[in-house]
Amino acid sequence: MPRWVDAARELVARIAGQQRQASPGPSGTAWDGLGAVLRTEQRLGAVVDDGAARAALAVAAGRALAGQRATAWLDGPDLLAAHDRLSWCAGRCLPLVVHATLGAADGHAGAAGTGHEAWHGISGTGCFQFLAIHVQDAVDLALVARIVAEQALATGVVAMDREQTAMALQRVALPDRDRCRDLAGDPADIIPCPTDAQRALFGPDRARLPAWFDLDRPVMLGGTQGPEAYGLGVAARRPYFTESLPGIIAEAMRRVSSATGRPLSPLHQHRVDDASIVIVAQGSLVETACALADHLRSHRRQRVGVVGVRQLRPWPQDALRAALSRAERVVVLERVDSPLAADAPLAAELRPLLPGHARIHEVPCGLGGLPVRAADLALLLETLPHTDADRIYLGLDFAPGTAEHPRRQAALDALRRDRPDLVGRGLRASSDRPLDLRPPHTT
Fold this sequence. Notes:
The chain is α/β, with parallel strands linked by helices. It is 41% helix and 16% strand. It contains 17 helices and 17 strands. The strands form 5 sheets. It has a 6-stranded mixed β-sheet, sandwiched between helices. It has a 5-stranded mixed β-sheet with strand order 10-12-11-14-15, sandwiched between helices. Helix 7 links the parallel strand 5 (128-131) and strand 6 (156-161).
């Protein structure tokens, strides 16, 4: 599908979200992810910049430099194209929140669906990163990100899957202006500096949104440095700024969770205490995995648990190590493939955290927006004890046995004869009938 068609669909969804804001319904009404988060940012008093990727991010960065509460909106490929600008914002300690819809990056062809290439592609920029499980999660994480950005003086990216969250209508409770003000504070406030590094820069107190760029007090910002000075600056970021970030995030999540009554943490853990198989997933895949885990425990007595990774940066390695400590097999669902790497990005970071007895299975799925079916995932979990494959492509059949047309059948026969190793690389359930994931007591 041409990129302009995809962009037009997203623009229509975004306009629809903006139109709803003129007369929003009561708390708990249906919103899509774009409209819900945009409304939340407006209630926080943020100036929303939306447009071409680099232009929107540059304008938002300029507002943050001038001491304004700002945000920018980017699509997945645009997020990847703005990698250098995100590094620039993070390096200058801009309290900026960027929202992203994760569309797949173009490869051998144009892609129209959800993909996580850009999400992992920006992991080295120095921005903290949150990925929402559903629309309500995106709203709550927007509040957390605003608190963290302005406490830690850090740039953050809050993302959501395109079709499954950004464009999906779900029932959401939006925070009103008073709650937003109570949680995030007024942009004009003077606050105590929360870290030693900030006290060294500002003294005991500072503006919630420092005006790094001030015509009345001109200073040089971002001038070119020699290798030694630049190297010292890079090395100093960890002890003076980023090491305090996990604690600030934990406190922000505790505050938002206390105000909303909804649990919030870097990891969403579901029935992992006694699980022999743990599914690790991000974004909208988490809900599917949790429903499947409940179904398999009730109907097949399989001890399956789920770990949903909300926070990619800072990487919550201690929490992940504890969550996976009892697992015998770890199934890592990835909406991205890295053909020249030993592991896909999430699996590569998880592997050093696993206990010695655990085996990891990398499962690329939902590539380019391909639907992730519970029936395919259930078949995968049944197959694991009988396969030696460490990487299985879910929902794909590389070499189907039969085809409707004779010429295609001949080509498939040749493929299966010449490359028998391809047969087991994909896994797709034979029936298109969806798996019933309702609890046994429902009708």
